Amino acid sequence: MSIFGDIEEFISEELYPYRWPILIAMVVTCGVVLVIGFRQRWHKALWSHKAATAIVGVPLLIVTLVAGDYFLSPLFERSLACEASPIATSGAGSEGCEGQEAVSAEEPGGSAQTAGAEERQPSLAASDAPAPEARIVSQGEFQGADDFHFGEGKALLIETAPGEHTLRFEEFSVRNGPDLFVYLSTDATGYTDGSLELGELKATDGAFNYEVPAGTDVSRYQSAIVWCKEFGVLFAAATLASN
Fold first, then answer.
1. Is the whole-model pTM more than 0.90?
2. How far apart are CA 207 and CA 91, in angstroms?
3. How far apart are CA 75 and CA 174, in angstroms?
4. 93, 123, 137, 188: which is deepest, by most CB within 10 A?
5. CA separation for the pair 204, 206 (Å, rounded)
6. H/E segment holding residue 33
């Protein structure tokens, strides 16, 4: 874990539960400092040394704005993704996706298509045997890593064909953050060496899919997780139990 990950973990686990008392204390402290500074005429001293104030203040302001935008703005940004389930009769998969136009998973070599679009015609060489029905082989409920990193919803591991699987999120919602990725983990509660990366988190809310590489032995994996790759911090995990 990086030093930033340690700091983020300390803030989320040790400080966040006491966020309101801390906020009140910070507001009171800022007010006291402003009053003292005004009485001591600090503002006049800064104004009388404009060059030095600018040399120190402008870079500090730029760094603060850039860092704040990277670290803090994702926490308040929300997004919605709605993709059709491999199981045709499963519905929208999320309350937020009701009435939304879902899209199917991206076809190899093509672009995403609208759910319910006309099915592709089978080739003349195709077998007359019916295609196997998709089925859920394991599933679990997302739990946030702590009070700050909330997460909820379902993780469904769906077998779409022999040796082919899709990880689907339904009724999903998680706190946003920088550099979030989705993994299948060999640990039931979080990230570990050997976790299988499936891609960037598509949205903070909704119902969407991740294709598992063909031939993967999914029995090795015990959980689906949302992981901050940049700082090595767990946001949410769903322990997978076989049906």
1. no
2. 10
3. 10
4. 93
5. 7
6. helix 19-39
9 vs 40: CA distance, rounded Å: 38
Residues in the chain, total: 243
Whole-angstrom distance, CA of residue 152 vs CA of residue 40: 51
The residue to which tokens 């790759």 are assigned: 229
pLDDT digits (tens, 9 = 90+) for 134-183: 899 999 999 998 878 889 999 999 999 999 999 999 999 998 888 899 99
Quick check: 233 and 4 in contact, CB under 8 A?
no
Per DSSP bridges, beta strands 180-185 and 196-200 are antiparallel
Q: What is the pLDDT of residues 175-218, one digit of tens each?
A: 888 889 999 999 998 999 889 999 999 999 999 999 999 999 99
CA angle 8, 4, 239 (to 5 degrees): 55
- Tokens for 32? 């006291």
User: What span, in angstroms and rounded, lies between the C-alpha atoms of 22 and 26?
Assistant: 6
Q: At CB < 8 A and 24+ separation, what contacts does 76-80 make? A: 76/176, 77/176, 77/204, 78/176, 78/204, 78/205, 79/176, 79/203, 79/204, 79/205, 80/203, 80/204, 80/205, 80/206
Q: CA of 234: how far to CAs of 80, 102, 168, 173, in Å?
A: 21, 28, 19, 15
Angstrom distance (rounded) from CA 158 to CA 145: 24
Alpha helix segments (H runs only) across 72-159:
73-76
